Amino acid sequence: MRERNRLEAAMTEVSELESELADNIEVAELADMESDEDLYQEALTALKAVRARAGKAEIQALLSGEADSNDSYLEIHPGAGGTEAQDWASMLARMYSRWAQSSGYSVEVIEEQAGEEAGIKSVTLLIKGENAYGWLKTEAGVHRLVRISPYDSSGRRHTSFASVWAYPLVDDTINIEILDKDVRTDTFRASGAGGQHVNKTDSAVRLTHEPTGIVVACQADRSQHKNRDRAWEMLRARLYELELQKREEAAQAEADSKTDIGWGHQIRSYVLQPYQMVKDLRTSVETSDTQGVLDGDLDDFMAAALAARVGTEAQEGA
């Protein structure tokens, strides 16, 4: 039913665009014949709105991957560099949370390990909404920050790295078989926010899938049972994403780019000093509005990366 609703909505969108295009072209031609400048400008404004709407629909049509419509987990890990890198990871978590909220998605913190002085050692977010994974998969890779470090008393410029990894929430239509003997379960005390109780009991759960080395952890709830269920859900999602990588060369290339959180592997650079520039190294999309990007304005970067990814897959399949 979800697939049917998606297709019906897409077909309705195309029909409405065709109708609006034809109607406004007719009005523009009539205004031109009668030399009615006001009516002509009105029709021109409407045609520009149709073009913008068609552009959004075109990008939306690219979200046709096997799990694109699913909710998405998002993991962020700092590279080497201590406090500076951990602070950058925290900035990225804020950026994606802002993007998700502005896109009408909900955000839940599944696991978070705070840094010793500032920032985070790791964080896993669950972003819920239509096509969340389809958009966020374009963000997988290493992100590079250049700025004057607030943690450097000498005011020197620092370069920091952090990795971002997205994988889809596995829904009931996807069957992932995991053998109990292949999974090691550890419990530990949760850290960070959550009150006294969450810090005094071994409520957090960590699962290790030994055949693949995949590790997931959850401390979102005070209940160990609920955290265990969520951790298994995350593990199924990670294994499913691993299978998707095996079948998609483009996704595999992205996974390879995350093997080293450092020079030569970044997908995007965020330069705050000595000039202001955010540039995607895959698509060459760039902007000087660095604060806007860090506040979640990522749509242009995501759309370009998605279009490039779909184009590459189409060429490989030809």
Helix content: 40-55%
End-to-end Cα distance, whole Å, is 31 Å
Secondary structure class reads: alpha+beta
In CATH, the topology of the domain at 72-173 and 269-317 is named: Alpha-Beta Plaits
Task: Count every helix, treating DSSP H or I runs of 4 or more residues as helices.
Answer: 9
- Sheet with most strands: 8 strands, mixed
Short recap of the structure:
The chain has nine helices and eleven strands. With about 325 residues, it is of the alpha+beta class.
Describe the structure.
This protein is α+β, with helices and mostly antiparallel strands. Among the domains are: 2-61; 72-173 and 269-317, Alpha-Beta Plaits. The chain is 46% helix and 23% strand. The chain contains 9 helices and 11 strands. Strands 2-3-1-5-4-9-10-11 form an 8-stranded mixed sheet. A hairpin with a 5-residue loop joins β9 and β10. α1 (2-33) runs antiparallel to α2 and α6 packs across α7. It starts with a helix and ends with a helix. Mean pLDDT is 84; it is low at 194-198.
Essential attributes:
8-stranded mixed beta sheet; about 25% strand; alpha+beta; Alpha-Beta Plaits; 11 strands; globular; about 325 residues
